[in-house]
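To the wet lab folks,

You asked to see what we're planning to order before we commit. Fair enough. Below is the target structure as tokens, and below that is the sequence we designed to fit it. If anything looks off to you, flag it before the synthesis order goes out.
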């Protein structure tokens, strides 16, 4: 039923729940896991100097890569194939593009991420992904 599952994260606690659930589903179906972190250029890197912006992006990417490596290692420890990528851009656009490029059968993500308003049932990124893709999305 599922051959490839995309598990995007932003490092938040809610996203971690999505990762856990995505890995569980992948294990159940023997699916490969594709992990993704999108550095939201609107959120990171607001310092005045352009070189400071680039330094902030690189710092976030380094932290994201460490997190992605840990998630991929967890998947591999469970006997699953796993890859990961860190991108820059608008999270919902990059999540959808990555899912399509990997031919993902399912996207499993947290209901909300690090910057979403807790008063809404879904975060803005999750809602946009759900509205803009034909790939099934499971919000955890």
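Sequence we intend to order:
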């Amino acid at each position: 039923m599922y051959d490839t599952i995309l598990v995007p994260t932003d490092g938040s606690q809610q996203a971690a729940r999505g990762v856990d659930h995505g890995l569980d589903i992948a294990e159940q179906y023997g699916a490969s896991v594709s992990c993704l972190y999108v550095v939201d250029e609107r959120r990171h890197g607001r310092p005045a100097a352009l070189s400071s912006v680039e330094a902030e992006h690189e710092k976030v990417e380094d932290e994201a890569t460490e997190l992605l490596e840990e998630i991929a290692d967890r998947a591999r420890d469970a006997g699953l194939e796993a890859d990961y990528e860190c991108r820059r851009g608008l999270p919902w656009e990059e999540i959808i593009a990555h899912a399509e490029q990997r031919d993902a059968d399912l996207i499993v993500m947290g209901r909300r991420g690090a910057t979403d308003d807790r008063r809404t049932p879904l975060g803005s990124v999750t809602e946009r992904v759900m509205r803009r893709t034909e790939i099934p999305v499971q919000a955890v």
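Structural context that might help your review: The longest strand covers residues 32-40. The CA atoms of residues 38 and 87 lie 5 Å apart.

Thanks,
Computational group
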